[in-house]
């Protein structure tokens, strides 16, 4: 008991308390103070993370220049090529055959054009200007037209001859009837005068001899007849004169009836003019159709010339040559395909590997673009499974003016430069994680934002 009394002494308790502060409490307080200083004074970067790809901003797309089967293919992944080096050669047999066919068609169309021009000139001048028969029948059509015209002319001449003969016959008959009618009317007038003279027993003078002779005979008979018979004889002779007048009247009426029925022959000019008009219309229609055909041929030749120009351009582009020195990166979708449509992307030509820096491209969501600025620092880490990652620091150099709308939303394309510090980086097409440094904040603020769900 006496040996343990020293443990109850106050000095021992003081020594225990001092040891606790020195080895436990003070270090804990120090750690807390240093931790607080680190939380409030220490800074961490605020970044926007996305995927990026090493690329070239001067990439040239190599596309098939024509629609043709590939005959020679010198494309290979990561192949270094020189400017003017043959990359692809195309089989142009089909194009050459098509060109030959179009040229032959154009030659035939041009010959037909010339034949149509000669045909139109022949119709306008109404004579055959063809030196020989053509392959399109235009010379024969001119001959048919000229023969038809000659036949119409002969027909018109015959119509005029017939019409003239009919007119002559009409004129002759009409003249005869007119003469007879005039003669009978003159006789009627004379006999009317004879009747008046006989009725008044007047002398008759200035009449034809036959009438004068009859009149004198009647006068002699009257003078020789007894007085009691004179009146009867006068009446008998007067009746004879009336009979003559009645006969003349009937003859005049008959002649007038015949002359009234007599009709002049119709003029042949109407039929002649109709045939001439029909012939002119036929010629004008033939010329119009020829001009329409000429227009169609001209249009076809122009279309063929346009096609020939395109074919010549295709023949000129029957080889795809490297536009500059660089490295090939093949399009996976076009590999091992022997025939591609014109304009199909077969490869991309990257410039030779730069020595100082390389470019990268990335897509940033539109809702994160408010803090992204040109010139801001970036960190790039290559995708390397199982290998220690190396961070490359670079700079953002370009932001697209407008966003691209995709099924995942709106994105802006950004570009930047990375210094070349490791040859492993100097390969186009490599991908990695890109961090865009938009600012810094204390660790305390970061923890606070996490707790308050403000990140």
Please summarize what this structure is.
With 455 residues, the chain is α+β, with helices and mostly antiparallel strands. Among the domains are: 1-41; 43-58 and 351-451, Efflux pump adaptor protein, beta barrel domain (Elongation Factor Tu (Ef-tu), domain 3); 184-261, no CATH class. Helix content is 52%, strand content 21%.
Task: Give a verbal description of the structure.
By secondary structure, the chain is α+β, with helices and mostly antiparallel strands. Among the domains are: 1-41; 43-58 and 351-451, Efflux pump adaptor protein, beta barrel domain (Elongation Factor Tu (Ef-tu), domain 3, Beta Barrel), CATH 2.40.30.170; 184-261, no CATH class. 52% of the residues lie in helices and 21% in strands. It has helices at 10-41, 93-125, 138-199, 209-224, 227-261, 269-316, 443-451; strands at residues 43-55, 60-63, 68-73, 80-81, 86-91, 319-321, 326-330, 339-340, 345-350, 357-365, 377-382, 391-399, 404-406, 409-419, 431-442. The protein has a six-stranded antiparallel β-barrel with strand order 1-10-14-12-11-15. Strands 2-9-7-4 form a four-stranded antiparallel beta sheet, with no helix packed on it. Strand 11 and strand 12 (391-399) form a beta hairpin. Helix 2 (93-125) runs antiparallel to helix 6. The two termini are 67 Å apart. The relative contact order is 0.16. Residues 274-285 have a biased composition (Polar residues). Residues 98-312 form the LcnD-like long helical bundle domain. One of its GO terms (cellular component) is membrane. Residues 263-289 are annotated as: Disordered. Keywords: Membrane, Transmembrane, Transmembrane helix, Transport.
């Amino acid at each position: 008991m006496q040996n343990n009394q020293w443990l109850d002494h106050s000095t021992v308790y003081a020594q225990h308390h001092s040891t606790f502060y020195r080895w436990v409490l003070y270090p804990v307080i120090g750690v807390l103070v240093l931790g607080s200083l680190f939380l409030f004074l220490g800074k961490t970067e605020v970044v926007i993370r996305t995927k990026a790809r090493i690329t070239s901003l001067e990439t040239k797309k190599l596309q098939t220049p024509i629609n043709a089967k590939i005959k020679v293919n010198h494309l290979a992944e990561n192949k270094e090529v020189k400017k003017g080096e043959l990359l692809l050669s195309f089989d142009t047999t089909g194009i050459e055959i098509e060109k030959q066919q179009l040229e032959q068609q154009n030659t035939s169309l041009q010959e037909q054009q010339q034949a149509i021009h000669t045909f139109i000139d022949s119709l306008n001048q109404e004579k055959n200007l063809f030196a020989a028969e053509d392959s399109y029948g235009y010379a024969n059509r001119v001959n048919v037209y000229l023969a038809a015209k000659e036949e119409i002319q002969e027909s018109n001449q015959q119509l005029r001859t017939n019409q003239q003969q009919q007119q002559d016959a009409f004129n002759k008959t009409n003249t005869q009837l007119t003469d007879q009618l005039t003669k009978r009317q003159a006789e009627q007038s004379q006999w009317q005068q004879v009747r008046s003279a006989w009725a008044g027993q007047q002398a008759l003078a200035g009449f034809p001899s036959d009438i004068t002779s009859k009149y004198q005979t009647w006068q002699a008979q009257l003078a020789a007849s007894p007085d009691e018979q004179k009146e009867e004889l006068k009446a008998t002779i007067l009746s004879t004169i009336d009979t003559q007048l009645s006969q003349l009247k009937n003859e005049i009426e008959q002649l007038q009836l015949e002359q009234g029925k007599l009709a002049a022959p119709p003029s042949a000019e109407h039929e002649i003019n109709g045939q001439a008009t029909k012939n002119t219309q036929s010629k004008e229609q033939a010329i119009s159709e020829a001009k329409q055909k000429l227009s169609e041929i001209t249009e076809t030749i122009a279309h063929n010339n346009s096609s020939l120009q395109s074919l010549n351009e295709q023949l000129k582009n029957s080889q795809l040559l490297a536009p500059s020195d660089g490295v090939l990166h093949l399009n996976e979708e076009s590999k091992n395909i022997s025939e591609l449509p014109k304009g199909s992307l077969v490869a991309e030509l990257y410039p030779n590997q730069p020595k100082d820096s390389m470019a990268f491209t990335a897509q940033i969501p539109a809702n994160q673009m408010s803090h992204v600025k040109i010139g801001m620092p970036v960190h790039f880490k290559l995708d390397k499974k199982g290998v220690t990652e190396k961070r490359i620091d670079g700079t953002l150099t370009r932001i697209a003016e407008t966003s691209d709308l995709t099924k995942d939303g709106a994105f802006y394309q950004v570009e930047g430069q990375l210094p070349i510090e490791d040859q492993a980086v100097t390969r186009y097409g490599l991908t990695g994680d890109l961090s865009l440094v938009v600012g810094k904040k204390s660790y305390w603020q970061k923890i606070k934002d996490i707790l308050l769900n403000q990140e």
